[in-house]
Design goal:
alpha+beta; 3 helices; 31% helix
């Protein structure tokens, strides 16, 4: 078979695979958050928020958030801990990398635009700046 013929026959398959992460990946994820003070977890109340919502939880603990292209803001406060906020950036996921290889730039762009191809780190350990 000629290379051009192979490409024409392969194009519909690649088109179906584009947007793969958008189809198969969930748009929510669980994140474990721990506020550390001198290498020990401290119990605090926290709020996580991004452009798609706001979620309250207790740390150390976990929270389910909606994936988005925007950074996740985690604000914590406790009885003996002053209020402070950290920013958790969204990072490319393995589904996005796979889609880039299988579906090309169009599929990867769809995954980034929808936020499904980006994920926050699964574990967020926050070192309390007031404990140092």
């Amino acid at each position: 078979m000629k290379p051009l013929t192979k490409l024409v026959l392969l194009a519909p398959v690649l088109t179906l695979l584009s947007g793969c992460a958008s189809i198969f990946a969930e748009d929510v994820q669980e994140i474990k958050v721990a506020l550390m003070c001198k290498n020990r977890p401290v119990a605090v109340s926290c709020t996580a928020s991004n452009d798609l919502g706001r979620w309250e939880f207790a740390s150390p603990g976990s929270v389910v958030v909606r994936s988005d292209t925007s950074a996740l803001q985690v604000t914590c406060r406790g009885r003996f801990v002053p209020k402070f906020t950290v920013t958790v950036p969204a990072m490319p996921s393995w589904t996005l990398a796979g889609n880039l290889v299988a579906g090309g730039l169009v599929g990867a762009a769809m995954d980034v635009y929808s936020g499904v191809g980006l994920k926050y780190p699964e574990n967020v350990d926050i070192n309390n700046p007031s404990c140092e």
